[in-house]
């Protein structure tokens, strides 16, 4: 009889409880069975290969906050009726503190009794054998968001697939990419790193795929390159040739960089047709065709609709589209030079 290999995604947090076994099985992309299990590992039989998440998550309410003058400690419980339930998280300067509603960094003095939080800690983190156990987490996230969202903390490889094989990131120009100090990062600076990923929608594939809203690189890395900001608003470089724009770039109310459609499309040798009645612009270059409509976040490309999160706008009688239009719709290579200019490669 052929032996089936089984893979497990196991939370260490379950190893300190006496909860019954709960198993969910799915088929992986390679046809092998992946089992997510919530039980002490000694209760699981016939396991050959174990795939553990890099970071363990523990969620509950803060029931105690203590400050000894050196660091803050919080007791987090998911069952307040059990005196032995919970985990004590020691908060020092190395712990990343976030709010899931704003997706921004917060300070330790904002942690209050009654808050719901999620603590994430490396699977190799040393913890006390006390009840409840005590440890220093890597990340604490305060739960305040009303709308559904997901946070994934894991190491990702160069193809931006999480180490447990459950999530693949499709990063676009609208994805915020920063380090733990708030510095903006290049796309190429996030592969092979431990990441905190905020996202909402994902596919049902294995691994699930998503375009994240925000990515935070967790570790300190001297090789991480900070992405230059766009500071030159009236020029760009196309195939190493500098071009002066008739209309300047600007940031809209959502802080999205908007670019003048006609100036940049003509620089890329597209023919433009404008329909004033429908407020639609058609761009044609050989077999390539795309269309945009003012106020509609629907960008036509190869008979497909692409959403960029920002609709085309009219400013000073000119049509503007979000910066991500270049890569996501026109499919050109875009970089920001050290001088703050947009450089486009065809």
Automatic annotation (TrEMBL):
Transmembrane segments: none annotated. Residues 238-339 form the Copper amine oxidase-like N-terminal domain. It holds the Pfam family Cu_amine_oxidN1. Gene3D superfamilies: Copper amine oxidase-like, N-terminal domain (3.30.457.10). Keywords: Signal. Residues 1-25 form the signal peptide. InterPro entries: Cu_amine_oxidase-like_N, Mao_N_sf. This is Copper amine oxidase N-terminal domain-containing protein. It comes from Tissierella carlieri. The lineage of its organism: Bacteria, Bacillati, Bacillota, Tissierellia, Tissierellales.
């Amino acid at each position: 009889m052929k032996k089936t290999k089984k893979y497990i995604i196991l939370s260490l947090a379950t190893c300190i409880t006496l909860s019954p076994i709960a198993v969910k099985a799915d088929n992986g992309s390679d046809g092998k069975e992946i089992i997510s299990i919530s039980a002490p590992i000694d209760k699981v039989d016939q396991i050959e290969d174990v795939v553990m998440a890099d970071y363990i998550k523990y969620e509950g309410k803060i029931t105690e906050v203590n400050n000894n003058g050196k660091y803050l400690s919080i007791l987090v419980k998911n069952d307040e009726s059990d005196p032995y339930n919970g985990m004590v998280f020691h908060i020092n300067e190395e712990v990343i503190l976030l709010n899931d509603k704003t997706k921004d960094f917060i300070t330790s003095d904002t942690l209050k009794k009654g808050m719901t939080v999620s603590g994430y800690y490396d699977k190799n983190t040393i913890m006390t054998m006390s009840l409840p156990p005590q440890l220093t987490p890597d990340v604490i996230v305060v739960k305040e968001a009303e709308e559904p969202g997901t946070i994934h903390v894991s190491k990702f490889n160069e193809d931006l697939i999480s180490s447990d094989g459950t999530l693949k990131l499709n990063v676009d120009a609208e994805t915020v990419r920063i380090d733990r100090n708030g510095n903006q990062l290049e796309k190429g600076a996030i592969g092979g790193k431990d990441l905190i990923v905020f996202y909402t929608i994902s596919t049902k594939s294995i691994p699930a795929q998503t375009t994240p809203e925000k990515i935070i690189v967790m570790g300190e890395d001297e090789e991480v390159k900070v992405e230059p900001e766009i500071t030159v608003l009236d020029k760009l470089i196309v195939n190493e040739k500098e071009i002066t724009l008739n209309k300047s770039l600007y940031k809209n109310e959502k802080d999205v960089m908007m670019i003048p459609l006609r100036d940049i499309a003509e620089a890329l040798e597209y023919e433009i047709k404008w329909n004033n009645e429908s407020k639609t612009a058609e761009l044609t270059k050989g077999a390539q065709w795309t269309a945009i409509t003012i106020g509609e976040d629907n960008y036509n490309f190869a008979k497909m609709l692409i959403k960029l999160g920002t609709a085309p706008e009219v400013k000073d009688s000119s049509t503007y589209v979000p910066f991500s239009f270049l890569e996501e719709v026109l499919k050109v290579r875009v970089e920001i030079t050290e001088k703050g200019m947009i450089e486009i490669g065809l």
